[in-house]
Specification:
43% of the residues lie in helices and 20% in strands. The chain contains 11 helices and 12 strands. The longest helix has 30 residues, at 87-116.
């Protein structure tokens, strides 16, 4: 919570600066209001923890809080949260609170839509590290709220050999062998390949997970055939669009990673409506 509070305080400081001039000039310090978070479109909710924290840090004197949980589906016109508080604080925190919850709900909503395209299939839909700097934890939580799965969180929690590692190491096999020597026996080795030749090298070198990066559907199909009977996880990745998800999943890969669910999700249209107490 300390890390999240620091993030929210910095976001508020960016928006408020020295003072909310308009609100302070037009609203008395003792005035109170009812506030309602209302959906202006259908979606999946995410970000309620940070939404509420904005107002708590502004000393809103929040009362009568009631809200839907993260991961809840909602329809246009639904009331997603309501509370009573000091009007000045509510108005001052409105934009920052909405920025967080609209963005995170956008990720959850897009993830849910993509996941629906995979209904009936066992493949996992994963996020990537293509996240907004300093918002990764919140964005990856939003993916979970939308029914998706998390890939590795950051560079420190998994081995994933990518194209530039392969170039510098001297090849796929060399990179895998070096990774095996440089890690302990309980750590899995993942490698990203772009051709069937590289895929075969990775398979023969004992990679635990192989990412099929920017391959055609036919190349992916051939890769799954080559891996038949081998204990290896296959992941489709690289410039995959939502419209391709079903066709790729039906090939037989175990995971599909989709950067678009975090870096290109449109915000969900939500509004904060206030009424005098």
């Amino acid at each position: 919570m300390t890390e999240l509070a620091t993030l929210v305080r910095e976001a508020l400081a960016e928006d408020i600066g020295q003072a909310d001039i308009t609100t302070n000039a037009t609203i008395g310090p003792e005035e109170r209001c009812h506030a309602y978070l209302v959906a202006k479109q259908d979606g999946v909710l995410s970000g309620m923890k940070v939404f509420r924290l904005v107002f708590e840090l502004l000393d809103t004197d929040m009362r009568e809080w009631d809200a839907r949980s993260d991961g809840a589906r909602f329809s246009k016109g639904d009331k997603l949260a309501e509370f009573q508080g000091k009007t000045r604080a509510v108005l001052t925190g409105e934009r920052v609170a909405l920025n967080f919850v609209q963005h995170l709900s956008g990720i959850a909503t897009m993830t849910a839509k993509c996941k629906e395209m995979l209904n009936g299939l066992s493949v996992k839909l994963c996020d990537t590290r293509k996240t907004t700097p300093l918002l990764r934890k919140l964005e990856k939580e939003a993916v979970l709220h939308g029914g998706g799965s998390n890939h590795r969180y950051a560079l420190f929690d998994g081995v994933l050999i990518k194209e530039n590692h392969i170039v510098v190491a001297g090849g796929v096999r060399q990179a895998i062998e070096k990774a095996l020597r440089g890690t302990h026996h309980l750590m899995k080795i993942g490698v990203e390949v772009t051709t069937l030749q590289e895929f075969q090298e990775a398979l023969d070198a004992g990679a635990d997970a192989i990412l099929l990066d920017n391959m055609t559907i036919e190349e992916m199909r051939q890769a799954t055939e080559l891996a038949r009977g081998r204990k290896v996880l296959l992941e489709a990745s690289g410039n995959i669009t939502p419209s391709q998800l079903r066709a790729i999943a039906e090939i037989g890969v175990h995971l599909i990673s989709l950067g678009a669910i975090t870096h290109s999700a449109p915000v969900v249209d939500l509004s904060l409506v206030i009424r005098n107490v």
